[in-house]
Amino acid sequence: MGTERCKVAGARLSVADYLEPALASATPDTRSLLQALVEHRDAVLWEQSYKSEERLVGDDMLSRYGFVEVISASGPYLSDLVRAGGSVFDVGTAPTRHCGPGDAVHAVSDTPHGLHTEGEALVMLYLWQNGPLPQQSSFH
Question: What is this structure's pTM?
Answer without folding.
Answer: 0.78
